[in-house]
Amino acid sequence: MPLQPPALYVAASSHGFGHATRLASVLAQIRALAPELRLVVASAAPRWLIESYLPGPVELRSLALDPGVVQPDSLRIDRAATGLALEAWWRELPDLAAREAAAARAAGAGLVLADIPASAVEIARLAGLPCWMLGNFDWDFIYRAWGGAFVDHADRIAALQAGAERLYRPPLHTPMPAFGRVVDIGLTGGDPRWSAAEARTRWGLRAPRERTALITFGGLGAAALPYARAADFPDWQFVTWDRDAPRLPNLVRVDDPRWRPVDLMPVAGRLIGKPGYSTFAEALRQDLPIVTLPRPGFAEAEILVEGLRDHGWHQLVEPAALMGGDWSFLQAEPVPPRLPPAAARLDREGSRQVAQAVVARLRQPDPDG
User: Fold this and answer.
1) Is CATH 3.40.50.2000 correct for 196-344?
2) CA 284/CA 321 separation, integer angstroms
């Protein structure tokens, strides 16, 4: 009788929702391949977010594994507060890593899968486990671009990351030189769980697809977005996950946590949002045009936008225009990818590719197996 596969300890960066949703899309594939596998997830993301991707039970350890970037909303950053948070994190890291290593051992974990907190490598080392990481950028890259005292933080993070056994790197990525072994994969993300007809009925969507726009700015939101401008486009319908958005005749507020942005992509003609890997990846997987804007202070934003210009239908708008109420971009057509069709289309099976590798490793725990 074959042995039951061990548990998987999963570590998500605490910054925003994108890292947790990318991991959850992989975990959903793992559960489909190995439903008996025990999943222990360390994340600051809310349970409803993880469960919106991952059916069935999950053991959630609610904690922050890294400081990420301190932000008042999705478009602004606070470098001073981030620096203080990093200093506190380094002081707390030995105790944090020891506690989580003990939890991983107690769960019978055979592998640590992380996106992409550097603390996960130390947790894995103390637990005597290999660490696989997943991400299109790392915090080394983000902090190093800020210069000054942040370079020391970047150096220390890079030194930790060098201990990872491998990195799974999806498209739209930064160089990530700290990792010794890099495995390039396809786009990650979830798949819509309902048909377009079911989505239209559930949310009362009557506008044609080309005049239906999704508005999503991730877990941190965009408090200054002038939703009132939607009234100037009465033949459009807009869909938002912002629970503080006003009630307008043509603005639908999604208040059911089971319905993710990807679930409504089949009924939309555009997605309006900040540069963010998980949002971009899911929209690209659904061939949905993306309206986006620069994200000052985030070094990976330029790489994401350039990748979008190569691989997806898109429109680029300035934050001052969008936040100032100039939504004239809705009257223009999205721009096609710069690359020819064959080169523009990216592999879309990244979540499945990582899941297959994880399940194979846990069932045959030989690094070369």
Assistant:
1) yes
2) 24
Helix, strand or coil, per DSSP, at residue 214: strand
For 328-367, the pLDDT digits (tens) are 999 999 999 999 999 999 999 999 999 999 999 998 866 5
* Domain 7-186+349-363: CATH superfamily, name plus number: Glycogen Phosphorylase B; (3.40.50.2000)
The strand pairing partners of 163, in sequence order, are none
3-state secondary structure at position 5:
coil
Cβ atoms 170, 281 nearer than 8 A: yes
More confident residue, 355 or 325: 355
Q: Where are the beta strands (DSSP E) in the chain?
A: 7-12, 39-43, 59-62, 109-115, 131-134, 166-169, 182-184, 212-215, 237-240, 251-253, 270-272, 290-292, 314-316
Average pLDDT over residues 92-113: 98
Instruction: Report the alpha-carbon distance of residue 8 to residue 41 in Å, rounded.
Output: 8
Considering the chain, tell me which residue range(s) the CATH 3.40.50.2000 domain(s) occupy.
7-186+349-363, 196-344
Residue 73 is given by DSSP the state B
**Alpha carbon of 181 to those of 221, 358, 359: distances in Å?**
35, 16, 19
Q: What is the pLDDT of residues 5-24, one digit of tens each?
A: 589 999 999 988 999 999 99
